Structure prediction request, 465 residues.
Amino acid sequence: MDKQSVPQDQVATYEGLRKLMYAVDENGNYVRVTSSGWEAESFSTELAVAEMIRQRDAAWQRAREGRASPLEYHMYRNRMDFDTLVMTTGLWRWRVKRHFKPTIFAKLNDNVLTRYAAAMGISVDSLKQLPSSP
Amino acid sequence: MTAFQHRQAAHCESGVTSALITHAGLPLSEPMAFGLGSALAFAYIPIVKLAGMPLISYRMWPGAIFKAMPKRIGVQMYMQKFSSPQAGADALDVAIDKGQVVGLQTCIYWLPYVPDQFRFHFNAHNIMVYGREGNDYLVSDPVFEMSTRCPREALTKARFAKGALQAKGLMYYPTQVPKDIDYKSVIPTAIRANYRNMMQPIFPMIGIKGIRYLGKQIIKLEKHKDRERYLPLYLTHIIRMQEEVGSGGAGFRFVYASFLQEAGQLLNNETLLKASKDLTDAGDEWRRFALRATKMVRGREEMNLRALSDVLNGVADKEAAVWGQLKNFAI
Prediction:
């Protein structure tokens, strides 16, 4: 990549951050150049974030209707997926899956709830609750 | 010992390792740390999923650079994991108070200075701590332009986050560095090891074959049952892994090309200089792939998975030619 081709698209998601890239100058030598981001990349990031928000909102809706426990909502809310939640809590997969059911989640003891809360960095109280909007 | 200088890098692990070794008295550029770590790779592993997407990596597993590379150049690294967060935090304080600059493996999600859009549960983000003031650690995170600060609790949380690739508080720093590096011997060794990553993989989903395999998988998406939703996410996932902050762009190809150039100049070797140029071309081709795929996802060009697959095969041809030149590289 030529030095002049290093994208400078002032990507909003970077929050002012500029990343370092290696590019070739007019003499063919590699030099260090900072980039304010590339549109193709930021589009991809935004799409992934939008998908996470979609999953989060769907989980919120399910919890609202009593079809799922707040656990699933909080999982997405904290940018986790099922595998991440399983691995960060160290619980069995089938147990985590069961805890998505409202009746079973309601009966959980503080010990298990604390593990979820700690993995997500939230309090046990907020874990038990569903906020009024996603 | 001289004051620590923050220096921005393209990639966290090579940035941290080169900074630590340079600070210890042996100047080492980031591309050189990356190249001597034989860190360039390609892997497409569909059975391992990240947020529902197959694992795609353009470099070797974490550790190739901070663990294997120092050994190769004769640098002794102290490395320690901890069973409890308290022990990890205490050991960090002891090392810092002795004036040591310490490399740490962390989960990027828990680092409060990181912009929101980069906060994913990724456990192998490397940073350095070079001091502390009150409740804050002085942090040098090489993918950022400036050094920063991180509160004690947040850093401990980031070091001891659980999950895939968990750090267990890993801290590391060089304890002994040689006066100089025997480039004539280590550069060919590192390049030959990297040749094996790319050309003689254990599985066909790795190296040049892996790039072609990804191309084949893309065509199969034509018939995916949830195509409308899945296809855009899948294609942009490839692009994110390739272009995101910390990859140096084009999936580390420019970093490695810069290494080949530096090595070629050091050894006065035409083969390496030529290979550097050709790998730069391959990197440009990766970026054309990213551009074209985003155009298709946005509907500015008709979706044509076979065309995208062809671009990837073109990339694979270019990279295979580079490694063909470097086969049995010796001086």
Remarks:
- Chain B has a mean pLDDT of 95.
